[in-house]
Design the sequence.
């Protein structure tokens, strides 16, 4: 019976190797993994604001471990796109180009392997199938162990599924991560990391990632399990399940510690970002003032030569302060009409237009532009006048009414 089980396991390992070594799979993987990884890298670093602490710990584990030393990374799970978005953001582009050095991960069959098309795609990007409810002794876990025994990198979410409260709390670590650590031929190097902000990029129930969000990632030191190995030597009768639970509990506790720390870092970054917001607005204003608006038909009356002074941020809480920031004290005609408009930075294009236009007039003008074909008798909205020309005539008329022309 024992020999039959060993032969069965050997045949299973050969089946896994045959599936992974197929030429078609290698070709697809060599193209799909670098393309997907670099797309995720650009998305996270180019379209969002991501701050990473301790990335060198993961880089060291990837580049300086021995050939037969496998790597397991563990992290919290708050969004459907945590992998590959967060993992890609942690790696340098040179690593992302090598499909062989990138991670394997596990995904539920009812989510990633629903049909032959999705199965082929996820297999090409190094995803292994995991069947919910079949426990730690199933084919997907055996395949992950096979990768670890070959010195490769496997990423796993110890919680098993993503958080349902937007990452506010973490679920307990499942027994599966304990099996991967304890049943590998050689103790893997286990590197934890925790992130926050992905719940804003991909909230539960959405299907399209959002941009312009802040994400903070903290990579921790490798987790040691030497004492558990000593316990196994001292107490040979200890059950494997007890060892699995001890490993998963230690990993869960470390992730909880990192989560508390990363949330503090994220809060500090958000406070710092709010403090720098006036500086960001000033830079945007400077860029806008360098645009040749005359080429767009607005002429030099939108940004005059006298407006070269930098914009000073103001924190306005009263009508009088807003009047001062707009320069309305020098314009008594406009003072009473537009003092309640909520712009708080002087010198910008929007606030300059607001000196001369009431919000209701802006809406009215937009409505006129939509009905150009039916209201050809308007004096500056004839059929031969373009929308840009209409804007110009409209602004000139407002300037005349206010005595500027």
Sequence:
């Amino acid at each position: 019976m024992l020999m039959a089980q060993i032969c069965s396991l050997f045949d299973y390992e050969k089946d896994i190797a045959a599936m992974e070594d197929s030429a078609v799979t290698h070709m697809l993987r060599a193209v799909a993994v670098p393309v997907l990884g670099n797309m995720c890298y650009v998305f996270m670093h180019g379209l969002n604001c991501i701050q990473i602490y301790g990335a060198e710990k993961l880089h060291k584990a990837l580049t300086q471990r021995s050939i037969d030393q496998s790597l397991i990374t563990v992290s919290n799970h708050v969004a459907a796109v945590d992998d590959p978005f967060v993992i890609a953001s942690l790696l340098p582009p040179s690593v992302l180009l090598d499909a062989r050095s990138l991670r394997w991960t596990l995904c539920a069959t009812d989510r990633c392997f629903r049909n032959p098309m999705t199965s082929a795609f996820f297999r090409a990007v190094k995803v292994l199938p995991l069947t919910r409810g079949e426990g730690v002794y199933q084919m997907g876990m055996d395949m992950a162990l096979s990768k670890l025994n070959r010195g490769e990198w496997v990423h796993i979410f110890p919680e098993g599924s993503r958080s349902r409260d937007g990452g506010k709390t973490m679920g307990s670590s499942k027994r599966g991560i304990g099996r991967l650590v304890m049943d590998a031929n050689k103790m893997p190097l286990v590197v934890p990391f925790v992130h926050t902000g992905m719940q804003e990029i991909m909230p539960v129930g959405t299907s399209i990632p959002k941009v312009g969000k802040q994400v903070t990632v903290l990579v921790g030191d490798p987790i040691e399990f030497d004492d558990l190995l000593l316990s196994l030597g001292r107490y040979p009768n200890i059950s494997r399940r007890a060892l699995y639970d001890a490993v998963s509990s230690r990993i869960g506790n470390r992730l909880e510690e990192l989560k508390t720390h990363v949330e503090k870092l994220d809060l500090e970054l958000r406070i710092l970002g709010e403090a720098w917001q006036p500086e960001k607005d000033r830079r945007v204003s400077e860029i806008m003032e360098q645009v040749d608006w005359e080429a767009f038909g607005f002429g030099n009356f939108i940004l005059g030569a006298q407006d070269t002074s930098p914009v000073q941020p103001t924190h306005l809480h009263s009508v009088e302060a807003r009047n001062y920031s707009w320069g309305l004290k020098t314009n008594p005609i406009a003072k009473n009409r537009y003092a309640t408009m909520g712009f708080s930075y002087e010198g910008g294009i929007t606030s300059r237009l607001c000196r001369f236009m009431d919000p209701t007039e802006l809406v009215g003008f937009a409505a006129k532009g939509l009905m150009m074909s039916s209201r050809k008798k308007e004096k500056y909205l004839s059929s031969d006048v373009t929308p840009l020309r209409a804007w110009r005539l409209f602004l000139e008329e407002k300037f005349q009414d206010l005595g500027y022309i």
Observations:
- DSSP finds 18 helices and seven strands in the chain.
- The first helix runs from residue 2 to 20.
